[in-house]
Amino acid sequence: MVIQNSVGSTETQIILLTSKIKKVSGHLISNPKDLHSKKGLVMMSNKRKSMLKYLKNSNLLSYDTITNELNIKKI
User: Which of 8, 9, 26, 54 sees the fewest Cβ atoms within 10 Å?
Assistant: First the structure.
């Protein structure tokens, strides 16, 4: 996986959001009634989706690389 030096780059933000999403998903498996975490998960998923959409329009090669390496469903 190619991680750029800039934390603000779209690719890096997508990678960081994906790791947070996996962490919260694991938490929700053991705590299914935690509605605040569910809301946070939905918000993070929507943010990642919009970032992936932006990346797809601006840099298709990077989009393909990120979706393949992180096993994210393509938009």
Answer: 8
